[in-house]
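TL;DR need structure tokens for one chain.
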Amino acid sequence: MSAEAANPGAPLRKRGRARIDLRRLGRVALLGPVSRDRLPDAIGHVAEAHRAHCPDADLTVLSRAYVLAESSHRGQMRKSGEPYITHPLAVTLILAELGAGTTTLTASLLHDTVEDTEVTLDQVREEFGDEVCYLVDGVTKLEKVDYGAAAEPETFRKMLVATGNDVRVMSIKLADRLHNMRTLGVMRPEKQARIAKVTRDVLIPLAERLGVQALKTELEDLVFAILHPEEYERTRALISAWEDAQDPLTEIADSVRSTLREAGISAEVLIRPRHFVSVHRVRGKRGEMRGTDFGRLLVLVGEDADCYAVLGELHTCFTPVISEFKDFIAAPKFNLYQSLHTAVVGPEGAVAEVLIRTHRMHKVAEAGVVALGNPYAQDATTAAHQTESSDGERADPTRPGWLSRLLDWQESATDSDTFWATLRADLAQDREITVFRTDGGTLGLPAGASCVDAAYAQYGDEAHGCIGARVNGRLATLGTALNDGDTVQLLLAQDASSGPSPEWLDHARTPAARIAITAWLDAHPECVQGPHRGRPDAPRPPAQPAEDAPRPHARPAEGAPNSRAGAAGRAPTVAVGAPGAPVRLAGCCTPVPPDGITGFTVRGGAVTVHREECPAVARMREVGRTAVEARWNDPDGWSGTADYRVTLVAESFGRPRLLADLTEAIATAEAAIVSATVEPPSEQRVRHTYTLQLPDAAGLPGLMRAMRDVPGVYDVSRAQQPTATR
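>> reply
TL;DR here they are.
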């Protein structure tokens, strides 16, 4: 454990702190319990570390826990030859250095007693209370997680359920694994490799997500040494050479101190060495290492506002590398991490990375959830609020967002193997993005997540009815990949029978989305048949018009009948500035009163009348065609008396029963469908073209509004299809 983890204000050392002499602790442990009025010498280091974080802590309970643990484990030995009690002592010391609370340390001392001795949970509860008993029970359930391939998925699932109910359970497990990794040298190489791989694939990503960087970085280095010994030795040689050379970061750190002192900002400026794996990654990315690549500057201040004051001074007095700036204070990472990241150019062009944070942010950055103490403790302000969720489980206000989501989707996993596979895929995601909801909330998603993932993250199973999204105010398909900082608005259908399409699985990146979609499809097998899987009522491929009706004609004489009029009424007529010329309404834009219209003479001397905004009008004017004046005869006189045709285009997101709902809206407006064409879905969007006959010109705006109100329809417009110039 690094010195900075135990005390954020302490100067950083290039070399790690000396390890505790476990053999000496073992000899002390064998002396047996001591008198009740004195703390056992064997946990003196634990007491010292705990008092550094909690000066007023009552150590009596730790003394009693040690006495029970030592007497229970007496006679048991580790494979290294040390008394077994040295293991819970070392695990407890790790947690004490991270700032864990007294309850967590008590449970850590007892974490193996129920599993490996005659001590029962009832005894632990009677002696130390429900809280310690709860933690010990949770850790006991994790003991077989790493061994036995068949049992691993289900055991790990139980582990995460226990962790979700109280993150302190996982804190103890991670410290337990760290000490085991430190003492792994006594095992056979093949067993070392097996344990190291499980640590790499599961526990290190979990430590990252719980924000326990101090544990994560040391675990990474230990795994690196076991699985990649040659690369480890090369990296160690590089670090040793750097430690023996003059550190260029020292000069930059002095300049930063002077700058902040002159600005009147109280701050500590420390050099934070990179750990082995971090150096290895930088070397792989940059090739030849520079002197400033072996560490970063850490600036610690008292208040959040001071962080931005420091940033302003650095960017004013040094040349900043703007591409390196990140603000994790305004938008904290999913594991509670907060800090400002930047880089500045120092003397002789040396580039130094700088981390700026408060002392509390630093403590949380190193210790994560361990530094948060008891998340269930209530003070006078919060005592009036319930700390239990609706299902009776304790609600942890400090639980990271990822862990909250994990608890939700693990309940929906169909089996342990599915849960295990999706969990490992999720743990492999090493970067998370933050997207904003239109109601002001945020969603934390893995990099590469789509609108499908956002829908299930925000709405859970209600996302089955999602029909589209707006990303940064623009319509987008559900498969659209989201970027950090995007604003997303999910559009839900009101039809309770709506369900996801199997194609959604191609876009889902989160376990929550994949498990929920798979569960729905398994429960609705009829929706995965045929070419339109998942859309039982999806629009079919393009249908041919019911009948290619002749183009509508109107003679110029006022009151002349139109060939398309039915017996129920008469069609509107048009007067044009070409006496005696046959007149017909253009089929590309289907003009109706009171549209603004204009005409053009075509072959045979007929005049075709278009809406003024029709693309064909602009095109014919561009080629020099002369427009013919046109106007409606008695434009206010057809309401309720004239039948006319109009072509509307409806654009929508695909969903079940969409076609039925649209045709119902059209029928309700007393419009008759002359022909309809539905294009094949493209990127979950569907385009419908309807030629309709309406009895009332005034009803057109209402019809278009009714069609727009159909769930899934995002636009209805008059057709403006290009036609050939004749």
